[in-house]
Amino acid sequence: METLYPLLHATFANLPDWAVRVAAFLIPIAFIFAVYPAIFALTTLVERKALGRIQNRYGPNRVGIFGILQPLADGLKILVKEDIVPRVADKFTHFLAPVLIVVPGLLVYLVVPIAPGLVAVDLKIGVLFALAVGTMSVIALFMAGWASRNKFSLLGAVRAVAQVVSYEVPTVMAGVAVIMAAGSLSTLTIVERQSGGVLNISNWYVFRPWGLVGFVLFVIGGLAESARCPFDLPEAESELIGGYHTEYSGFKFALFQMGEYLAGMAMAGVTVTLFLGGYLGPGSGTGLIGRLIAMLWFFGKLAGMIALNIWIRGTWPRLRVDQLMGFAWKILLPLALVNIVAVGFWHFLTPRPVAWMVTTVWLVVWVVVLTKCNASAHLEKREYRYV
Amino acid sequence: MNYPGKGLVAGLAVTARNFVGSYFYKDRLITVQYPEERVQTPENSRTFPFLVYDESPDKPRCTACKICEVECPPKCIYIVMDRDEKGKPRQQPKVFDIDISVCMQCQICVEVCPFESIKMDNDFEKSKYGRFNDLVQHLPDLLKSNAYYLKIKPTEAAEVDAKLKAETEAKAAKKAAAAAAAAAKAAAAPPPAAPATTAPPTPPSGAAT
Which of A11-20, A198-207, B16-25 has the highest mean pLDDT? Predict the structure, then answer.
């Protein structure tokens, strides 16, 4: 269970046992509380810079060199802002929601391994924990929307609940494919099952037909669950003036932003773990150097996933509510179910080329069928009889 | 070839091209980084009036005729003429205030000025911390050299200079003509006393030779 404990025990053999236990308990907590919020701060800056460049602007470049201190300035600014609570709001719930929204994002990192053996808690039900806890944020969102006593907030919260509940299903189904292939729910085991092959890369699940489909499903589901563009309907500024965080200001608003980003990054981390081989890559191993390289690989892949999120945010327009729901229930869910069958084919068809061929054909056929069935109606040219 | 998500991929390609291109092609970034970079303002752009002087700020072109003060629609100009000890007007302003919080930059003062003295500036960085007295521009703030005028509005200033030069030349020519006419008149019909006053020194020398 405690994966850091044997490591520390072996390294610092002369320390008393209780000190090693406390250290093994505190170090992951400190790490998660320090590293991921730091990545969040950096992400806000990188995102603004990248979105600026996509639109041929500079982005923030005034605070420090290349605007590197911009997150600090933002934090200071938002700390000194007035904290407004609507008079008719449910004060306690209104206060509790932004606190609660940060928790699930941080909890998911508990089961995301960053190097061989380096995971805060090696739960036997790691994937289930990540997916279940990651969705908990919807409670906080609904609390925020309900407690604000504002129509826009409530609309945003209702949208958030509908969206997260809908997209949770195909996301979990896509995860089920990986769980079936790996034969385990433990994230460490899932990563280890992807090791080997050419350069420690070719066995990643994303390089399987079902893995690629699962990866796409999981990325889309992750975007939707963390309410990122193009699924940012719950907080659509142009429609709902911020949705559930309309009535929040000051540091509570910052906590909402932080919770969202942490949840998004957590989903990216889970995606990396399940499909992109986690910490695996050329050079990753169990020694000190191997572990450092493995950490580099993990955080590099995480940065890649964050960059993909930013790229998508800078490109795709927001969906309509009916499109959002139709996409989840009519395309993603059937595809995820079909994908589970594909993993079955992959598992039971013995010569590898045959399995490759059968699963590929199966998935391609179903993708074509689903897109054809869900193609929007082609409208005839209208003829007006009474002009 | 048509495949699901084709438009999405095409969109991603477009944004990627813009993202990468903004690092390699400077002309893509159209933002002007204001305090460091500046756009050249058009020659005919205008902000607030200023007063032109030729050689020194002690002798402005302005004669304190108060035409601009009268014509100014929002009445933002206030002029007091300078007087010497005896109370005789010196034909230059002692006080010349323009309240730029009131000025509406209509350029009417420039149009009515007969002495080419008041002109429109293009300096837009005039923000101040105070709302009232800080925004009143006094005579020292307003006086700027003709060289500055030539620098900010070369065409217009050159025209003005040519006009003024022609005027002074015409005046000088007129003066010269008048002087010449007077001289000719004096030569044609010399008053009797004149030769008598000038002649006397010569005879003794002539007599001596």
Answer: B16-25
Chain A interface mutation, best of B8, B14, B22, highest count of A Cβ atoms under 10 Å? B22
Tell me B136's DSSP state.
E
Environment class of residue B179 by beta-carbon count within 10 Å: exposed (0-12), middle (13-18) or buried (19+)? exposed
**Last-in-domain residue among A272, A295, A319:** A319
Q: What is the pLDDT of residues A22-51, one digit of tens each?
A: 877 788 888 888 888 899 989 999 999 999
Tell me which chain B residues have a C-beta less than 8 angstroms from the C-beta of A315: 8, 11-12, 14-15
The pLDDT value given to residue B209 = 47
* Residues A111 and A131 sit within 8 Å (Cβ to Cβ): no
Contact A315 B29 (CB under 8 A): no
The rounded distance, in Å, linking the Cα atoms of B181 and B73 is 46
* Residues in B touching A311 (Cβ below 8 Å): 12, 15-16, 19
Dihedrals phi, psi of B172, to nearest 5 degrees: -65, -40
ipTM of the complex as predicted: 0.77
d(CA B111, CA B68): 9
pTM recorded for the entire structure: 0.77
Average the pLDDT over A291-307 and give the result: 91
Instruction: Identify the domain containing residue A45 by its residue range.
Output: 1-80
| Domain identity same for A51 and A197 | no
In terms of CATH architecture, what is B49-164? Answer: 2-Layer Sandwich (3.30)
Query: What phi, psi does A337 have (nearest 5°)?
Result: -65, -45
- Cα distance from A372 to chain B (closest Cα, Å)? 9
Number of domains in chain A: 2
* Residue numbers in A near B12 (CB within 8 A): 311-312, 315
Q: CB under 8 Å to B92, separation ≥6 — which residues?
A: B59, B60, B62, B63, B64, B81, B82
